[in-house]
Amino acid sequence: MYNTYMIRYGEIGLKGKNRPAFERRLMDNINRALRKLGSSRVLRVYGRILVESEAESTRVLDILSKVFGIVGVSPALRLPLEEQAICDGALATIKDAAAHVLLPAGETLTFKVEARRSNKQFPRTSPELNGLIGGYLLDNFPGLQVDVHTPRIKVRVEIREKNAFVYADDISGVGGLPVGVSGKALLLLSGGIDSPVAGWMAMKRGIEIEAVHFYSFPFTGEKSLEKVRDLCRILTDYTSRVKIHIVHFTDIQKEIQKNCPEELRVTIMRRMMFRLAARIADRQGALALVTGESVGQVASQTLESMRVINHVIDIPVLRPLVGMDKLEIISRAQAIGTYQTSILPYEDCCTLFLPKHPATRPRLEQALEAEQTLDIESLLAGALERTVVEDIQQLLP
Amino acid sequence: MTGRQVYLDNSATTCPYPAVIRAVVEAMEEHYGNPSSLHKKGVEAGRLLSQAREAVATSLGVSPSEIVFTGGGTEAINLAIKGALPGRHGRHVVTTAVEHPAVLSALEQLKEQGVEVTVLPVDGQGVVDPQQLQEALREETYLVSVMYVNNEVGAVQPLEEISVVLAGFRKGGRKLLWHVDAVQAYGKMPVLPGELGVDLLSVSAHKVHGPKGVGALYVAPHTQLRPLVAGGGQEHGWRSGTENVPGIAGFGVAAAVIAREARGAQGKLFPLKKKLVEGILAAVPGVLLNGPPCHQNSSRCAPHIANLSFPGLRGEIVLHSLEERGIYVSTGSACASRKNPGSHVLKAMGVKGDLLEGAVRFSLSPKTTEEEIDYVVEQTAAVVQELYALYGVKKIGFRP
Description:
The complex is a heterodimer. Chain A contains 15 helices and 15 strands.
């Protein structure tokens, strides 16, 4: 029933001089997300962002709920500046809002009308409108009661230049910053539960993500790669496209397997991954890496391991999951929509090569010594040469 | 990468013959009528159905009126098992531990309705003992379902002996239906339900270079069957729904090839399989053949399926390593490879541990050439030796 959506974007309002750039980015992102719906319009009026769309409200709201930077959305009716139309719109709005209110038995549904007239040409003042519309609602919706202090439903009416807007609900958005305002980072994407969540959390802070995946064919297969692509496709709901760099990692793994002591293989493997990722990041203009690591979660994620692994690169590594427990990560993955794909049973390269007892407290000297046998530069060059880039785009109808 | 492609996953599915593709396209372009329609378009489509039915019947040595087209092998099997009427006293079914999931899962559904199911064990080669079948039969047994060729290891079940056992059981006037899942035997060995005294026999088109989504159930005369799909009464009322004319037309073309060549197929395929198995066994010590040995005179050994275990290597890794060299094979059966872990067939044969996880299936088709087999032997030996060399005796790819 709604045709307009008023977008609130609190956090970026605080950013002073950056504000216009931020708003432009948010509008771009909303526009891109709404392409799925065909015709809809995003405009900036009255100091806020409005979306006009004739599409089914639940679909529009679902899409907007995945755009970072949106703090809240009010589905609204855009109406002509006529009293009767406004009254009828208010009635439709309160009926819809009432359908979503869970009222304890015996309690009456309370409401108030909050009119604001910025268009002073309109013949009724705000207090007049409150009374007029309130009366109309009481007459036409049995069981309502006015409560000006703590109403269950607030019907807001805005009288603007050309139109009136009526709305009641305010639906929370996902928050964060519009993707792109914080620059770009490279996400190390395995096929597991954690890394897509880490990518999502980075995007939530306005970071544009490209992904790197280390592919160990024939030790893993096309199905595991397709799973990674599917994870990227899910992330495009939040950012519309994700570039994925598929690095041919097999030769490096073979060399590590041949030359390095078993307990250090995971450490060396991660060091090689970080080196490759940092080079790709540099090439792509990404300023940081993002990983799904969380401290102490598995043996290779101890602080000692992180330090030894991190030592090979000098760009920041963001680990957004560091403060989360496994269960929190799982429930976040479920909310994002990546969980069901992540738990498909195709191996990624890490699980295949896990030794029985990886070193949990590797020392830097050990790692350096173990790497002496590897021709690191030529291994990196070989892997980068065989890296394939795929552009995973949002699926449009 | 040589760019060379050898497809040895024919028990999962096959590459359709060009003539099959043409028949499917032609049916869609030209003969799109509904066979039930009274006008010319309907009659044309109906003619395609009859031709295909004739071809499938000929390939099985039966009459066209005994063929029911279905939406695939699994549906044919479900129709046989769930459609078979128990009669007044029937409430017991006998099957084997190595049947395809289509059979075993359909029987699970029957169990929920109170039917008792005896699952016969198999020996170390995947073959069931007719003596044990005889002992399992009871007054209340109304259905026996035994596959012809096992899809994972290529064990050929002793259908002639079973036929004798069942004939003896029926002598006393006892009613019993015998279903044979012949999906893997069809096109590779003679499949003649009439000679065996089989009542119900299922086949699938896409395993014999036909299209996917089409199968057939042979139903012996006077067999009572309850349809699974109710509707307009197509396929003698046993499978309602407008016929999949393009698919069935394609099936007909593939069946015509079988009718012409199936007797020769076995003689052509067997030496190739023997060469493959013996070549790999000779080149890589420690590799084991799962299923009946392929001596020239072994009648228990299907001519086109070879299941080999590479101890210490996970099957998936061998599979992908061969894929890298353009060779397509599978681990266990394709349907099962998503599920974890290990095949119910190999387990029933007593295969354990890393032999279970290291199993790889090579499956041939009449299109396979000797040159391809040479290439596969050479590449498999190279791949496996390389993997063994890289990882020594340590088992790789296993979860710690």
